[in-house]
């Protein structure tokens, strides 16, 4: 039976903590019998729970007392400890990340009394790295060297066995043929038709609710009608439990979203084709992280379906990070943007603004609702000459928030520099010009009429021909 009992009491148990904060409180010790405490250790840190192997990290540790406690005493020891900046508190399906203050009385020849109290930590911005190395299970350099020696010794052993045993050699050859065939079908054959395909992301880092955008570039070696081009965004919890032969991987899909970028698209040999894509990340607190054998990962999987031929597939890792927390008013406009909007609203000739500058401001503010509203107030109704790249025509019946024409259509396009996504509302008289679309340029005059918040696109209405 323990000779003392510990209790951790936080000063503000309901508070949400951020990077740079400190958690304070006291450890109460109720002594039942005289006991010698070698050290009363109090530490802050995090710990994973759930299906995967446990990982933990320590943020700060102090020794609050060392000495003898007398029977019947009730003592309290205050503490103030740093809060970890990463990872944030997370309660998922297979993975849980908790932060806590732990107290432990180290007593010789007895079980150490322990106590713990959890507190919540919220992310306050993108971490320097989404991978946090746990304090336990660190591998030293000499162990890595030993592993390398064993590996090369194993290769030498296998080489000798293969020479001495033709049966094993035959099995290895069959395995090599199967693996080579799989690689040829999966990776080489699609390139025989499509040539080199590049998947270029505007940025592999994004915050929840922001868009993931980029382009697929391909230079086909022959004419081919593609069945479909699709993009799939998947978020997963991946937890590994056990080790060796008992190792098991647990996966849980958090979110998945599939979007068809093109259907029945013909590409021509020698012509570089670009297929833009953009869709929005869901609102989530499942940020990308890796804590030992536990991780949350987001993947963008691209697929080009080729008729009667192996499909081209490619995956890109997406780092989902928390939005930057600011102590100042959220959505505040920087002075440069504010001055630019004042220029937009000016009446004198020197206050005129080009569409290039307007597009730059909208592109910079595309994730900030307040900045977008201020920009729209400044430029809505203004008409600009512009040149854009047409992407695809939408099924539009003319009732899209009264922004377009009753007899018109909607077309997705993008500005060149910066690559601002746009929605063009086209009058019926110009419908034939947009009948055959796909990465061609359009020049003309259009009026800014709003912002498509669902697809994060600037909405403009083309002028009717005179």
TrEMBL record:
UniProt keyword annotation of rRNA-binding present: no
Alphabetized InterPro entries for the sequence: Arrestin-like_C (IPR014752), Arrestin_domain-protein (IPR050357), Ig_E-set (IPR014756), Spore_0_M (IPR009776)
TM segment ranges: 139-161, 167-185
Positions of region (Disordered): 242-263
CC annotations in GO: cytoplasm
Keyword line: Membrane, Transmembrane, Transmembrane helix
Any one biological process term the GO annotation gives: protein transport
Keyword tRNA processing: no
PANTHER family: ARRESTIN DOMAIN CONTAINING PROTEIN, FI21816P1
Protein's UniProt name: Arrestin-like N-terminal domain-containing protein
Species the sequence originates in: Crateriforma conspicua
């Amino acid at each position: 039976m323990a000779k003392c009992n510990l209790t951790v009491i936080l000063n503000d148990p309901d508070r949400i903590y951020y990077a740079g904060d400190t958690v304070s409180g006291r450890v109460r010790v109720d002594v039942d019998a005289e006991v010698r405490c070698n050290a009363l250790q109090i530490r802050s840190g995090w710990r994973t729970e759930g299906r995967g192997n446990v990982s933990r990290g320590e943020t700060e540790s102090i020794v609050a007392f060392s000495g003898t406690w007398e029977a019947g005493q009730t003592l309290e020891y205050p503490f103030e400890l740093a809060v970890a900046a990463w990872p944030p508190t997370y309660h998922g399906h297979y993975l849980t990340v908790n932060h806590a203050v732990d107290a432990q009385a180290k007593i010789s020849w007895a079980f150490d009394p322990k106590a713990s109290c959890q507190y919540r930590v919220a992310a306050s911005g993108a971490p320097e790295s989404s991978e946090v190395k746990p304090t336990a299970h660190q591998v030293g350099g000499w162990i890595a060297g030993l592993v390398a020696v064993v590996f090369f010794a194993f290769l030498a052993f296998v080489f000798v066995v293969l020479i001495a045993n033709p049966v094993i050699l035959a099995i290895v050859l069959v395995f090599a043929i199967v693996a080579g065939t799989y690689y040829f079908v999966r990776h080489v054959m699609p390139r025989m038709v499509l040539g080199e395909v590049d998947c270029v992301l505007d940025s592999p880092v994004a915050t929840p609710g922001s868009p993931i955008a980029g382009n697929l570039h391909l230079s086909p070696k022959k004419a081919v009608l593609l069945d479909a081009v699709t993009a799939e965004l998947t978020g997963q919890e991946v937890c590994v439990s056990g080790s060796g032969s008992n190792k098991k991987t647990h996966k849980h899909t958090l979110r998945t979203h599939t979007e068809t970028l093109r259907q029945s698209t013909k590409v021509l040999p020698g012509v570089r084709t670009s297929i833009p894509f953009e869709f929005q990340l869901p609102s989530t607190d499942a940020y990308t992280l890796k804590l030992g054998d536990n991780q949350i990962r987001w993947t963008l999987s691209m697929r080009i379906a080729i008729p009667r031929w192996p499909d081209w597939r490619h995956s890109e890792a997406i780092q989902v990070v928390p939005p930057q927390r600011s102590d100042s008013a959220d959505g505040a406009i920087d002075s440069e943007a504010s001055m630019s909007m004042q220029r937009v609203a000016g009446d004198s000739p020197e206050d005129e603004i080009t569409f290039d500058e307007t597009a730059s401001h909208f592109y910079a503010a595309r994730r900030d609702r307040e900045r977008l509203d201020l920009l729209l107030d400044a430029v809505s109704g203004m008409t600009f000459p512009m040149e854009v790249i047409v992407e695809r025509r939408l099924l539009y019946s003319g009732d899209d928030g009264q922004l377009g024409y009753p007899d018109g259509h909607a077309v997705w396009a993008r500005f060149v520099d910066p690559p601002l996504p746009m929605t063009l509302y086209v009058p019926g008289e110009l419908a034939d010009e947009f009948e055959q679309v796909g990465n061609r340029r359009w020049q003309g005059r259009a009026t800014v009429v709003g912002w498509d918040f669902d697809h994060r696109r600037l909405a403009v209405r083309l002028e009717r021909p005179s």
